[in-house]
Automatic annotation (TrEMBL):
<keyword id="KW-0732">Signal</keyword>
<protein>
    <submittedName>
        <fullName>Gfo/Idh/MocA family oxidoreductase</fullName>
    </submittedName>
</protein>
<dbReference type="Pfam" id="PF22725">
    <property type="entry name" value="GFO_IDH_MocA_C3"/>
</dbReference>
<feature type="domain" description="GFO/IDH/MocA-like oxidoreductase">
    <location>
        <begin position="138"/>
        <end position="247"/>
    </location>
</feature>
<feature type="domain" description="Gfo/Idh/MocA-like oxidoreductase N-terminal">
    <location>
        <begin position="2"/>
        <end position="119"/>
    </location>
</feature>
<dbReference type="InterPro" id="IPR000683">
    <property type="entry name" value="Gfo/Idh/MocA-like_OxRdtase_N"/>
</dbReference>
<dbReference type="InterPro" id="IPR036291">
    <property type="entry name" value="NAD(P)-bd_dom_sf"/>
</dbReference>
<dbReference type="Pfam" id="PF01408">
    <property type="entry name" value="GFO_IDH_MocA"/>
</dbReference>
<dbReference type="InterPro" id="IPR055170">
    <property type="entry name" value="GFO_IDH_MocA-like_dom"/>
</dbReference>
Amino acid sequence: MINFATIGTNWITESFINGTLVNNDLKLAAVYSRNLDNAKTFADKFAINLCFDDLEALSKCDEVEAVYIASPNSLHFEQALLMLENGKHVICEKPLASHFQQVEKLYQAAIDNNVILYEAYKTAQLPNFKQIKENISELGKLRKAHIHYCQYSSRYQRYLDGEIPNTFNPEFSNGSIMDIGYYCIAFTVALFGKPKRIQADAIILGSGVDGCGAVLLTYDGFSVTIDHSKISRSEQVSEIQGEEGNLLIKGISVLDDVTLVTDSIRDLTLPQEQDQMSYEASFFAEQIKQGVINDEAMLQAKNTSEVITEIRRLTGVNFPADDI
């Protein structure tokens, strides 16, 4: 078993831990929080006694081989770098860092220290993503894709009431393209690679982050239109169009349903684990066991970050972390 620690004590951390309980080689060994009482309260849920409120101490703990990071976006880089430089394998929540240069530095640190770094993007590991990849050739020559993810944030009313919750705060490297929009960009990059041209526009909130936006990514012979939003809601499915058919995709982050439409209509949807984070956890553990970073996953993470960094430049979304 691979003993791992968590940084962050929120719902997504709990989801990841539950995912490791599904046919996995990862075992929770320690919990970190800035507040030791919070760490102990969270650790008690899983009968874990080893708790930290000191990142340096965690990075040097011999009982921990790997670390799962689910802190605010702006903290990912410094926390991941500390762990990598101290020989810990790292799986870090998306986005891996605030901008592309930080992502490059993290992967170089992983290579230099002979450890694994993996951006926790579960969608590319789902059975239904593999269905899309295996069946997309039936569409013939690709021409267009429309990728949608618009979800009204539960924290938006707080923003409207005068607060600046983390999700709408540039201090935490947040906003729509770094959250909801990430899934759209990462899905596109995982399927088609890095685009040849990027165009983007956004609605910028008073706090300085984007509340929603639109992106046009151009490839050889086809284009991808992306709509993302944290301040509006949509039930629209995503679609990939070719000259001989189209793919309809419900839920671009979870891939609930995949339908192929050609001369007939075929449901391609496969059963998926309820704890979907089990797929990324297994993929991370397999890289540790093999002792090598997966090249495709590394390229996806770098390309996704490069595209998002350019989108922020085009739309004027700037973070304090950009100066670091």
